[in-house]
Specification:
Strand 4, helix 5 and strand 5 form a beta-alpha-beta unit. Helix content is 32%, strand content 22%. It is built from five helices and six strands. The longest helix is centred in the first third of the chain and has 15 residues. The chain has a six-stranded parallel beta sheet.
């Protein structure tokens, strides 16, 4: 059994700046400290993901064929294809996504896993949306 922590990071990639750089730097730092990292996005600027800094990232990057528009098609693809790519269980889900989709990704956590949420500039939601899921805002 491996002692490596498995971390799933979920967010959107619009450009190469604050939040996008944060995801990239966090993923690299976790890998340098022996974590296995997967970054997943349903919405992204495909040109950013073609940049060498993302193509050469030391972690797996999951997208959909519909990332530029996002929306229902991208979500449906993610819900259909990603379960085959998200093998095993993760220790931590770190996300800046504040939608019900976090609940979908949380199913890939170990029973004692954690969901860590960052706002990334988004306004906080006023209603609970993940009843029963351990959640910490960072």
């Amino acid at each position: 059994m491996s002692d490596h922590k498995r971390v799933l990071i979920c967010g959107v990639i619009f450009g190469y700046g604050g939040l996008e750089g944060h995801f990239l730097d966090l993923g690299k730092l976790l890998v340098e400290n022996d974590a296995e990292v997967t970054f997943a996005t349903r919405v992204a600027n495909p040109d950013v993901l073609k940049m060498p800094v993302w193509r050469e990232a030391p972690f797996k990057v999951l997208t959909t064929p519909f990332i530029q528009r996002g929306g229902r098609f991208s979500t449906a693809w993610a819900m259909t294809a990603w379960p085959f790519q998200l093998s095993g269980s993760y220790d931590v889900l770190y996300t800046c996504d504040w939608t019900w989709f976090v609940g979908f990704l949380a199913q890939f956590l170990k029973p004692n896993g954690y969901v860590l949420g960052g706002r990334g500039g988004e306004a906080p939601r006023t209603r609970p949306y993940l009843p029963g899921v351990k959640f910490s805002a960072v």
